[in-house]
Amino acid sequence: MATRMTSARFVGRSGQLVELEAALRDAAERRPSLALVAGESGVGKSRLVQELLDRARADGVLVLAGDCVDLGEGELPYAPLIGALRGPLRDGHPAFDAIPARLRGALGAILPGLEEDRVGPDASQASVFEALLSLLEQLGDERPVLLAIEDLHWADSSTRGFLSFLSRSFCGERLMLVGTYRSDELHRRHPLRPLLGELARDPASRMLDLPPFTREELAEQLEGILSGTPDPALVERVWARSEGNALFTEEILAAGLDGRGRLPPTLRDALMLRVEQLSPPARQVLRWMACQTKVDHELLAEVSGVEADALLEGLREAVAAHILVADADGFYAFRHALLREVVHDDLLPGERTELHETLARALERRIAEGDAGAHITAQAAHHWMEAGDQRAALAAALRAAGAAERVDAYAEAHALLERALGLWKHVDDPEALVGTTRVELLLRAADAADVSGEGTRFEALLHGALDRIDPAREPRRVASLLGRLHRVQWDLNRQDESIETIDRALSLLEPFEPSSELATLLAAKARARMLQARNREAIEAGRKALEVARSVGDAAAEVQALNAIGVVLASAWQVDEGISALREARALARDSGLGEYIDRTSVNLADALHHTGHSEEALAVSREGLEEARAAERPHTWLILQLAEINFETGDWRAAAAGLPNQRRRFWATTLLNYELRRIEQALGRGDDAEARAELAGTERAAVDSTEPQFLAPLGAYRAELERRAGDVDAARAAVDEALDRIEFCSEDIARIALVAVAGVRVEADEAERARDRRDDEAERSARERATAMADRVRMAAYDGGPVVEAQLALAEAELARSETRREPALWEAAAAAWERIGRPYPAAYARWREAETLVAVRDRDGAARVAEAALETARRLGSGWLIAEIEGLATRARLRVHGAEAPQGTDGGGAADQDPFGLTPREREVLALVAAGATNREIGERLHMAEKTASVHVSRILAKLDVRSRTEAAAVAHRHGLADVALT
User: Fold this and answer.
1) What is the pLDDT of residues 442-490, one digit of tens each?
2) Which architecture does CATH list for 714-894?
3) Which residues contact 625 (CB under 8 A, 6 or more apart)?
4) How far, CA to CA in Å, does 984 sit from each of 939, 945, 972?
5) Residue 914 above 50 pLDDT?
């Protein structure tokens, strides 16, 4: 009879269990979460998760559990997910019928038995991910779902990809995912590390590191195993030998209940000691089991050569000894992965080769009988590789890659194809064996890498294929591949190199007649130059592409060319021509059924309309495009973000915030930059500077190599505004200078140059005011010179600009006047009116605040109150906390009668105080003038013939009336509002 080694009592881990249960409660309340439990081998990760699963089942939670298997990278795609979903599928859960037909087909591709439909050849792995998420969401509608995945350090690439997708897609599902992985398995380049880094940054994720047991916890474990209080000497003995590892403790007791049994120096030897105590039939079963992570009884009976009765007896013995477990689907597996490892490692080399070859041949027979799914073919490929039969391994790898591609497991297909490439040179006449060439294999692997998001490897494989193709003999083929290379180099932010690549491709096609390949390459170059705002080159390439595309009837290239031309013309202030080209592009995309281009042209048309002052029409285009994309079930993130941007700038901040995807979602490349810009602009608008600063830091890193002004300009302007508010003039100036340098380098995007330059004028106006407050003439002169230079840039941009740039110029002129101490309310009024004409209330409210401030300085308190009240009303409607505070602060200090703004105590509306915007008496004005000149209380007393103590009382009253905390701040207010210009008696 086997000795029980596992404690029936759950030991320790109370803090970790509480955290996991809290995450499960969040999931039940539609706040989905993800928890990862890490720890060394045998520390008790599985026991902790099992306790959570048991409690969850007791609470009515639907528990789904699956294990990752160790067959190497690129094998058994979605293995733990398939295992987890097998139960509900077998039970005919209605959730499978509730998902949309399109997604049901994708799900059927990885869940044999659901239905025979398969996704079409143009489907992507995203459809499988979406199908899985839809199924989990449907399951969660009935009751909360807890999905547990063990041993993520062995997770296949598709499973890792789905976890990444799931963390980015969490929204309101009643779903919790808990996973375990061995921290001592993660070498520096382990494929799980990038996913862990991504998940660690996600606020919906919980990362738990499970330490070994303390001495007290180990004593509790021993008590549970022995059903009694352990002797203190036993606790010390086991503690010294196990060092708190739960599995070590179990193995020590299995070797002898007194804890004195002979324990080999390593855990592997300890585990093998238990295996060696079994009967020969049981050990024979375990040797076969060690070569296959999960084995059904039929396969084991076929390959083991053990008689039926002996096989059953051996299995029963191994299960009773807690070495094997049997699941409800008829599969056997080792209780702990370490047990399988040590048995496999204990096999002699020749024995291991023979076992793997026998398993491979058995699986080949199943494949020949029609079971050629991704899992069975991947297992066969693994066994041939382990058996050392390189010829069979090459053929099996390609067959398994094809099966993986059919279920959209492109990452696994990529790994298998890379394996085939590695085997190629070791096999005689490989082309005859597999019926393909090395070039075709390289391109097939490149395709899989591309779809898997492995851009760097995609590029390397393309280079490998190009090196083997003679451009003199196959120029069209080489040109087409160079076009693909251009795209990946662009995505990898090597944009100048990508332009050189596409020029090389175009040169190969020069001797030939016009073709679709030529039109596509020219359109791609036009788009690249358009994104860099190199307008002349974009127009030149676009018009050539348009001519060729129309001559050969290539609608896709024609749409791309029109799209690039339209954007450039609109940004170069040939607005009517640009918008006309964009409308033509969208209409052609619709007529030709080019869904991706319908959405792209909708985004660009809306952007052009918005930035030329036609925001209402831009909103209509965005909404129409979004509805169209949703109806066709196409990705529509850019349309969502476009709508959020326009809503924000036209003053519907509530809709802008609500329209953004859930904050836990993650995006990539330019989509990530666009998403983060929307979040930053909203945070700055609200006045949440801390959030804006945190978002900016990551976004700037993501854009460090970008050459696209559409991202560089707002990032520079937002950083400058953030540092301006913080009073860090050096950081604000650096942000402006860097953004202008990057945009102006071979770019013609005058509108975005103006955006950054206006931010620069504002920074310098602030600095000029502070310099005057400090009486630092040199700093003031420098700030005024920089402000003039920045304003000149805006004037140049507005020379041929539209209404938005004209409004930017009006704002720049007013800020320049502020830097030069010119109190001209009319300039601020003109700026506010310019923004109001194009429906941009936020900058208009800012200008109205500055106008009110200037009116106070020229003693027009009634006008200042009227303008401040209008600005305050707009700021409150928008929800701009920082602007509300500024306007209310001005109203309080200047004692303006503004509805809703609290006036200082003592305002009675009459007397001498009413003659000054801050309620200062003539005598207090004289004292303030001396304070602004830097006089001490003693010097004030001597000059005004009063006691020093009386002067001190006057200064205290002045500080209270001005609502400032120091003499320096009082001097600043005096300078800005002309209160220091007093003739002293």
Assistant:
1) 999 999 988 877 888 999 999 999 999 999 999 999 999 999 999 988 8
2) Alpha Horseshoe (1.25)
3) 598, 599, 602, 603, 606, 636, 639
4) 13, 12, 19
5) no
The secondary structure element, H or E, covering residue 148 is strand 145-150
| 3-class state of residue 67 by DSSP | strand
| Rounded Cα gap, residues 531 and 547, in angstroms | 21
Domain 14-211, second-level architecture: 3-Layer(aba) Sandwich (3.40)
Residue 871: both structure tokens together: 């600005």
617 burial type by CB count under 10 A (0-12 exposed, 13-18 middle, 19+ buried): middle
**What does the pLDDT look like over 699-733, one tens digit per residue?**
998 888 888 999 999 999 999 999 999 999 999 99
Residue 558 identity: E
Separation between Cα atoms, residue 977 and residue 971, nearest integer Å: 10
Packed helices 555-571 and 575-591: angle between N→C axes, nearest 10 degrees? 160
How are strands ordered across the β-sheet holding 33-39? 62-67, 145-150, 175-182, 33-39, 205-209
Kindly report the CATH number that applies to the domain delimited by 912-976.
Answer: 1.10.10.10
Backbone angles phi, psi at 742, to 5 degrees: -70, -35
C-alpha closest to that of 149 among 19, 29, 35, 14: 35
Is pLDDT at 123 greater than 60 in this prediction? no
Q: Name the CATH architecture for the domain at 514-660.
A: Alpha Horseshoe (1.25)
**Strands across the sheet with 324-326, in order?**
295-296, 331-334, 324-326
Q: What's the one-letter identity of residue 98?
A: A
Burial grade of 257 (CB within 10 A; 0-12, 13-18, 19 or more)? middle
Q: Whole-angstrom Cα distance, residue 452 to residue 405?
A: 11
CA nearest 409: which of 83, 153, 123?
A: 123
Please give the residue that has the higher pLDDT: either 190 or 274. Answer: 190
Cα separation, 36 vs 171, in Å, equals 19
